[in-house]
Amino acid sequence: MTQPTDAEIADAIAPLLADPGRTAIFSDLDGTLAPIVDNPRDSQVSDRTRQIFAALSTRYGAAGIVSGRPCLDARRVLDLDSLIYFGNHGFEALRPGVGSTPEIARVIGEHRDDVHAFTDPNLDEDLTGAVGLRIEDKRTIVALHWRGVEDEAAAEAEAERLAAEAEKAGLWIHRGRKVLELRPPVEVSKGTAMKSLLEGGRYGAAFYAGDDSTDVDAFKMLEEMRAGGAVTSCVRVAVLSDESPPELVANADLAVEGIEGLEPVLEMIVA
């Protein structure tokens, strides 16, 4: 796929505009709305992106973010209280007007502490620090990052070694762009996050933009719900980079060249 023309974009998004009150507009954050950076704390969105999402939240039935970040961190980056935030790839949710305590996905149940039961005795901070592997504790998930470290190959190898041990202990592993996550063994993903929002018939159309393998889960769920009649239409936009997994484009309706390529699509949706 190549950057779509304005006419192709207009044709794709037409079902979203037909009934805005029954349309949900959602997006991944890092790599989709905000550039990928070595330190996630440095991530920023443009002022225009912030303005667009503020407008989306007033014009459509629902608008929000589905991120690998915790909800509160995603909200910090966007600095918008009017959005719905699904954090930790769907393990938690934060809706407008409910304060600052995210709701944890019920399906986690007794598995809430599984990841820490493994990492607390098995993560050797001296070893991970020596190879530059960064540990991000997201409560129910622990992420291992190696982007931008001096020896990415050595850090990735240590992450994979830990992943192999974690799998033996019953955890599930998810790989992204220079990050590997240790997760509890429950069916939670960006796809199940979107399903929790859309099921029940409140929304007839949905939009989702993403750049990584975790976003493919949302793409596939939207198509599954469209095929099953839970929504009448969906628009899935792949935001491409040189690190994009092949399955991203394979499951998308449109593909755009990076964050800059997504902006014209959002502009047309919010116009």
Task: Tell me what you see in this structure.
- By secondary structure, the protein is an alpha/beta fold.
- It has 2 domains: 18-105 and 189-270, 3-Layer(aba) Sandwich (Rossmann fold); 108-183, Alpha-Beta Plaits.
- It contains 10 helices and 12 strands.
- The strands form 2 sheets. The protein has an 8-stranded mixed sheet with strand order 5-4-3-2-1-10-11-12, sandwiched between helices. A 4-stranded antiparallel sheet has the order 6-7-9-8.
- Strand 11 (233-240), helix 9 (246-250) and strand 12 (254-257) form a beta-alpha-beta unit.
- Helix 2 runs parallel beside helix 10 (258-270).
Overall outline: globular
Number of discrete domains: 2
| CATH architecture descriptor of the largest domain | 3-Layer(aba) Sandwich
What Rg, in angstroms, do the CA atoms define? 18 Å
Low-pLDDT ranges = none
CATH superfamily annotation of the largest domain = HAD superfamily/HAD-like
Secondary structure tally, helices:
10
Would you tell me which CATH topology of the largest domain applies?
Rossmann fold
Query: Mean pLDDT, as a whole number?
Result: 93
CATH class of the largest domain: Alpha Beta
The end-to-end span amounts to 25 Å
Q: What is the number of E strands?
A: 12
H/E series, N to C? HEHEHEEEHHEEHEEHEHEHEH
Sheet with most strands: strand arrangement: 5-4-3-2-1-10-11-12
Helix fraction by DSSP (H/I, runs of at least 4)? 40-55%
Helix-strand makeup class = alpha/beta
Largest beta-sheet characterization: 8 strands, mixed
Share in β-strands: 15-25%
